[in-house]
Amino acid sequence: MPFVGKPREMLRKGLEAGFQTNESLGRFTAEALELPLANIGGGNDSLSNLVDRLITAMDQDDRIPDLVAAARTERPRNVLLRDVEEMLDLNFRPFDDVRSPPPAVERKIVAQGVERTIVEAAGFPAAAPFIAELGEAEYRVCLISYRIEKGKAVYGTGLLVADDLVMTNHHVIACAQPPESAVVLPGSKISITFGFRNFNSETQVYKLVEQDWLVASDPYKRPDKSPGLDYALLRLATAAGKDRIGSSSAAAVRGHFSPVAYVPQPDEPLLILQHPFDRLDARPSPMRLTIGFVLDVDGPAIRHTANTSEGSSGSPVFDSRMDLIALHFWGDTGFNKAIQMGDILADLERRGLGGLVT
């Protein structure tokens, strides 16, 4: 079916906004798509006409997904390109996982009959910057995987908090080291996969340093039986944060998250980017976004209603401003839990490692 209508118009506008000159567009098509502009009519025409011919040529070769994926790696903050990518991913229904808090949770009603600000702390974030931040965040969240005895696979989610440091839950990596394992698993046996946003997306797989890959950690339960923060910092063999997220020379640099010490208020919205395990297909899912609400804060733990599943452990939790405020770690009937970044940062500071994550 020809690529027409609203999706085509959105893609055209997104490409024009992202590549504002013929030279920029020509470099992109030659490097990322191996399609010189001369092959579609040369570079002397207007940018609008060139973009239109580019879309037509890619559509004729059934390469529209390739075009969108390549453009997104160079312009991850481009809202229109992200919207088109979601339209193309037939397996992605962005609001399937949005759930309101269960009926048992009492909701505050400030006034009736007139619109009011219900949760002051949530504010009114601007839409375009929020979506742009989300577009960048997708490239900084990773799927963690490794195999243990008898070939059993272990999966979890992680996030880049420095150019060469991945944060996840301690229990995600526990099976790769004593006492769960007889030996420490070599870093080359642990895969860190970025860019698994859908089944068509290009991924980049990294490994941990061969030895001493565990930089810092606190278990879910400490030896004295007191509750821990359930986090781990893992050292990558390559600084993924300095790498470009696509194959072309102008692809955006991945960068990393900067955690924020912020205590959310009850009823504030939260977002989680994660790789939940798909039990039906028996494999990790491409990146998923879920939205929920804060129920309460108890010490370092945030109880919330955002959906998670096996494989979601170690996922980043964001507030409505896309600030990284917590690390998801646990679920129970009716609620999930996340550890506040402020407590993790304080723990690193106590260990003399405060400068590692900023």
Briefly characterize the structure:
The protein has helices at 5-18, 22-32, 47-60, 64-74, 79-88, 127-137, 170-173, 341-350, and strands at residues 141-147, 153-162, 165-168, 191-194, 204-207, 214-218, 231-235, 269-274, 277-278, 283-284, 288-298, 301-304, 316-318, 324-332, 335-340. It is of the alpha+beta class.
Beta content comes to 15-25%
Strand element count: 15
Amino-to-carboxy terminus distance = 48 Å
Instruction: Summarize the biggest pleated sheet.
Output: 7 strands, antiparallel
Protein architecture, described:
By secondary structure, this protein is α+β, with helices and mostly antiparallel strands. The chain has 3 domains: 5-90; 139-242, Trypsin-like serine proteases (Thrombin, subunit H, Beta Barrel); 268-356, Thrombin, subunit H (Beta Barrel), CATH 2.40.10.10. Helix content is 24%, strand content 23%. The protein has 8 helices and 15 strands. The strands form 3 sheets. It has a 7-stranded antiparallel beta sheet. Helix 1 (5-18) packs antiparallel against helix 5 and helix 4 (64-74) runs antiparallel to helix 5 (79-88). It is globular, with a radius of gyration of 22 Å.
